[in-house]
Amino acid sequence: MSSEKMTNIFERFALYMEGNTRGVEIMTYGVASIGLLTALYKIRPFAKFTKPFDVPQYFLKSKVPLKGKVVQIQIDNGPLIMVDHKPLIPLPRLGKSKQLPVKIAGVDVNSNGISWLQTVVNNNEVVFTPLLKDKNWLECTVALLQKDQESLQIGRQLVALGFGTVRQLPADLLKNKEVSSYQKSLLIAQKWAQRRRNGYWQFIKQPTLIWQIKNAVNQKLSSILPTVIVKQFNI
Questions:
Q1: Same domain, 32 and 89
Q2: pLDDT tens by residue, 129-153
Q3: Looking at the record's lineage, which domain of life comes first (predicted)?
């Protein structure tokens, strides 16, 4: 087809479209609607998740954070944090709400940790980011929301207190920078707990004389120094 014929075709099409603005509007709205529906399908703003397999794979792949309230701490299989998931756009629902079972990623929680979860985390709002999906639970990083304070990373806090130990996450997950950073933070917290003989570690590592002296000095310093300095230097 010659360039002259192509030009004539485009000119006729342009003239037709200029005279049919309604068609242009319909086409524009159609494309926009498809884009909106695709976005809504991905983020599921009205969906309330109550089972692990309700959560789309896209959420795990993209590490989409979810929000909810902890209703119960189940001691079986983990333990499991039973979360009443709150959709991005909540809608009125009939009947009793079911909870989504959440396990803290990369942490094996001991009995002291279960008590801590029941005391500190239960009945509070959390943000949880799904990493792995099992038929019985969703394995997530979990952060406790605190009023006027930075959110508390529950997994890291449990490990630092000696109320849990680090469990290696799958290698393919660690390729993600956020997950790798999370795993490293757990390992740092575990070294801290070991050094302080916190929780579990007081039974595993017998305190030496040097450790007892150092611990006494640290406790004295932490009682007289500002909190900011204590946190900065891990005293």
A1: no
A2: 999 999 999 999 999 999 888 999 9
A3: Eukaryota
Query: pLDDT tens for residues 203-232?
Result: 876 666 666 676 777 777 777 877 666 555
> Which amino acid appears at position 37 of this protein?
L
User: Domain tally for the chain?
Assistant: 2
Residue of 160, 175, 100 lying closest to 130 (CA atoms): 100
DSSP 70: E
Name residue, tokens 């079986």. Answer: 76
Using alpha carbons, list the distances in angstroms from residue 222 to 150, 215, 216.
Answer: 21, 10, 10
Q: Identify whether residues 116 and 79 lie together within a single domain.
A: yes
Output the pTM of the full model: 0.72
The whole domain housing 12 covers 3-43
- Quote the distance between the C-alpha of residue 193 and its chain's center: 23
140 falls within a domain: yes
Q: What is the mean pLDDT of residues 123-129?
A: 97
